[in-house]
Structures are given as C-alpha cells and as structure tokens.
Target: DDE Tnp4 domain-containing protein
Amino acid sequence: MNNSSFTSNDDDNSANLKRRKKDGEDDEYKLGGSRKNKGINNSNNSLMSDILTSLILLDEEEKQEHQQRALESLHDKAAFDWNHKRKLEAMNDYHSDLQTRFSDLDEMDSSGTKRHRHSAKLTAAAVAVTETAQPSSEQSGTGGGSGQQRRLWVKDRSKDWWEKCNHPDFPEEEFRKEFRMSKATFDMICVELDSVVTKKNTMLRDAIPVCSAIRKVLMPKFLQWPDEDKLKMIKGEFESMSGIPDVGGSMYTTHVPITAPKTNVAAYYNKRHTERNQKPSYSMTVQGVVNPEGVFTDVCIGYPGSMPDERVLEECALFKRAKSGALKNVWIAGNSGHPLMDWVLVPYTRHHLTWTQHAFNEKIGEIQRVSKEAFARLKGRWTCLQRRAEVKLQDLPVVLGACCVLHNICEMRNEEMDPELKFDVFDDDMIPENSVRSAGAVQARDHIAHNLLHHGFALDATKIVN
Model:
C-alpha cells in the first residue's frame, strides 16, 4: 500500500512537473513573440523617420536650387541690361559725334544767312508750341488718367508753311497773326538763340528742347528780379497809379488745365474749376509777380492745382528770399487769397468795411488788376494755356516758363495784341484760414489806408460807399 501510494505520488509529481514546464515554455514563447513584434515596430518607425528626413532634405535642396537659379537669372538680366545700356551709350556717342561732324561741315559750307534761317525754324517751332501745342494724330484716353498720353510733334511737319511765312513778301500783319509778334521781334529771338540751337536737330519734332533753350538763354535776360534802380522806378510808378508807397510788384496766381495725371491725381484735382465747368478738372499753378507794364519779374510754376494760393506762395523762391531779408521796405501786392505779411499787402476781407478800408481796397485793386491783366494777355497770346495741356506733366513747367519769357519780350517791345485774342481769367482765389501773419503789417496797412483817405486818393472809393 505504501509503495503503491508513493508511486502514485511520484506520477502525480512528474505530471505536475511536466505541466509546469510546458506552461513555462508557453509563457516564454509568448514573451519572445511580444519582444519580436516590438522590435519590428521600432524598425518600421525608424524607417519612416529616415524617409521623412530624406524627403525634407530633398525639398530643401530643391528650394535652394530654385533660389540659386533665380539669383543667377537676376544676375544674367542685370549683366544683359548693363551691356545693352553700354551699347546704347556707345551708339549714341557715335551718333552724336557724327552729328557734330556733319554740323561742323554744314557750318563751314553755309553762310550766316542760312544759319539764321536754321535757328529761325527752331524758334518758329517754340512759338508754335506756346501758341497752339497741337497733339499728333495718335489718339489716347482722356478721362481719369487712363490710356497713353498724346505726344508733341511726333510727325514731321511740312516746310511749306514756314517757307511761306519766311518769305520777304509775306505780309507783316499775317506774320503777326501767326506768331503773335512782329518779324523784327521774331528775328531778335532767333539771333539770341542762334548759338544754342544751330547744332540741334532741324526737324520741328524737337519742340521741348527749344523751349528749354528759351528758358536757359532768354529767361536770365528777360525775366529777372529788378535791381535797386529798377525797383525804385517800379515803386514810383505803382505809387503814381494808386497812392500806395513802396510797392515792388503785383502778384497773381492762375491755373493751367491739364489732363488727369496717372499718379497723384488727387493733388491736381481743382475743386473750384470742377464746380465752374461742371466736370472733373485738373490743373497746374502759375504764380507771377509783374511790374507796372505787366512784365513778369518772378514766376513760380508747377505746383498741383489743389494747393491754395497761400500754400503756393509759401513754397516759392520769393518767399524764401523775403524770409532772408532781401525784400525789406518792399510790398508785393497780393489778392484776398494771400495772407497779410510784413512784405505782402492784401485787401481787407472782413464784412462792414469803413470808408478808409474801402478806399484802400479800391486802390490796391488797381495794382492787382495789372497782374491779372498780364495773365489774361499771357493766356490770350498762347492758346495752349487755355485748354488742357497735351504735354507730359514733367515737361509742362518748361513750356509754361517759355510762354512767360516770350510774353515778356512782347511786352518789352510793345507788341500789340489782337483784341480778338482777349481772354477772361477766372478769379478763383480763396481767403486763407490764417489771413493775418504779422501785427506790424496790420498797423502798416491801417496807416496806408488812413493816408489814402486824407490825401485825396480815396475820393472815388468814398463815392462808391455812399
């Protein structure tokens, strides 16, 4: 019984041992499988990371190559542009040298009369520009600054017109009608410009350079601020006219209509002219000071039409000259659009004026009419100033300056103007917000007004008040 029992126990123990062994092998198998799967996952993650890193590096390399190609393209374009510019400069220099050589040969072969006729053609072109400024037949958009602007003198003009006008038998009256001046004045201008324009292109398409020659050669001679002796004469003439002493000039600001510019259009928008014309209007300002004969002694050209008269005055060279003390004991007579300053004398603008103030306004108005009528003659002579200019905006001040110089020459030589050319200047001055800039000027104006009333100059004004 004991042996049987022991054997049975041994068998049981042996079976249990085998069962435990088998269970251990199963656990070990399961653990090994889990470790194997974890290793596979880690390997896959590492592979994906390598792939993503490679893609990112490839993308970055592609970007760098693209930037490098763009940079090389810019360098190539810059080099091409530089080489092209150098070639153009070389060609222009060569062409200029040929033109100079041919011009020298022409001068050697031509007589003085031929050179004079040559400069006369160019002068005729300048006068034609200031008179009419006709555009070419190439049309462009006119509204809102859209479209390509028309160009000036882009086609060759027939010489028949000039040959007819230049003929000795051409009537003086007809010549004056064509050029707004006599033959003698025209010949004088040709002589003055001869040294500058004889070597220039003889075709009438170069109108703007001729206007530049007028500004360069004639402006210093015919449009300049008077010296002390002339200023003393001007003061005397204005005082004889009005009774107001020490007036050295009459100032007025007008506007020249232009087409709507492509840039900065709001600055050139003219509200007053738009209201008057019932359509959008744009302009460029021309401020001028004239002597008693209506000859310009100072001009400021080119500021946008939206600027009021006082702002134009503050930006001009005359204002800077006055601030430096160069206009001591000199009054410049302005209008109600200018402020009262130590050197600018303007009318009274408040309501309910006294007799004395009315008298002063009447007399300073006589001085003011001198500059206003000068601008009326300026625009009457050169009709390009009456309508929208077709010249490029950056070139327009040169043309306007040439108009002022030619106006002065005509005035100095007493060139009569056809009454049919009379032009009414639109008075669009606005009273400035700060109309009084100097307490001393207030006292000086009151003193002048008092003297006018008590020295018999203001009798007409008192009759008007009564």
Notes: The radius of gyration is 43 Å. The CA atoms of residues 7 and 13 lie 10 Å apart.
